[in-house]
Amino acid sequence: MDQRRADVRNPVPVNQPRRNSRSEVLAPFQVRSFRFQFPGDLLTSWAGEMEILILGWYILTATGSVLLLTVYGSLQYAGTLIAPMFGLAGDRLGHRNVLCAMRLVYAALAGLMTLLAGLDALTPVAVLAIATVVGLIRPSDLAMRNALVAETMPGDRLMAAMGVARTTVDSARVVGSLAGAGLFALLGMAPAYVVITLFYATGLVLTLGVGVPRPSGAMARLSFWRDLCEGMAYVWDTPASLAAMWLAFLVNMTAFPLTLGLLPYVAREIYHVGQTGLGSLVASFAFGALAGSVAVSFAGRSIRPARMMIVYTVAWYAMLLVFIHVPGITGGRIALVLAGFAQSLCMVPMAVMLLHSASAKFRGRVMGVRMLAIYGLPLGLLAAGGLIERFGFAATASGYCIVGLLLTVVIAVRWRAALWPLDAPANAR
After folding, report:
1. How many folded domains does the chain comprise?
2. I need a labelling partner for 347 at 20 to 30 A (CA). Which of 57, 119, 246, 249 fits?
3. Residue 20 lies in a domain
4. Would you say the pTM of this structure is higher than 0.85?
């Protein structure tokens, strides 16, 4: 039987032998589609991280404004409000087809940036304009990846596959940050963007090799608005999914801004280092996240998703508080490694929990609704820009973490019956 058509909700048979840790990690690569998707996602993620770091540093040095830096970071997530539409398009047209179209746009815009940089015609206005277009698409990229993994992966390998797939994002923040900073510092903007464009183009070609079942023709006859409302209603009526959505919005608003959009400011104004120092900070958080994703892959089906999501959200905020107040860049790097580790042990189980609970009909829509939570990130970044200019970085960041910790406890208590009991569906292994 074709493994790619396996229902992700089917439990593992009782008499199935338990895999060891190594086989848990390698099992997803037995599926042909994953062998194409993994390197395609990897190259796309590397290119994206290089691009974000290079352009963030360019905006900060060209304008000298932390507010414009947060505006640039916020534009990366401009498309969060239309993410459910991408999810619905994936359900109708095929998640691979939508993902390929998105990656074609990435490659084309990176080629345009290469041309502008080569002609010495690049300006902050042009960067912000292109970032706006990319930002309409990029928030849906991870949702499409996750839905595509669920579409092609048997249920007993889904946790391990999601952990392995997450390493494409986390390793990109290590490799992309260091390589992007190094290329930009040594060669300049145009040569760095040649590499970025090649990575995007190769990622597109590899994604075209993913084989998936054809989308149902019957779905195309349904109402777009009705389908979207069904996806929203499904999440609203599922307590564990609703709790996960609120938690995702919370961490995007109060945790991710400190390590995604504001690190260029921390590097330049707090630690007084250049591009290489910035790259090391980004890579520290990413290295911890990569280690966390690998740990999830090894643990596989032994994980209780909802419990782990709550516990490691608390750990994530605690490590960010350490990062904010520890003196010196060396201590900051160590705290970022631990924060990144906790972040993965929160976000990967969250995604698996959402995908396990959704039928094939709703996967794209559920992950699209999940991407709405990313809207908290631009809101948090924009608010942080003004607050930092008025109160300073330490006070603003500490306030974000304390609010995040308190509201995490509120979510855990409010939906305790759906998230904490070992026999709850959200903790199914």
Report:
1. 1
2. 57
3. no
4. no
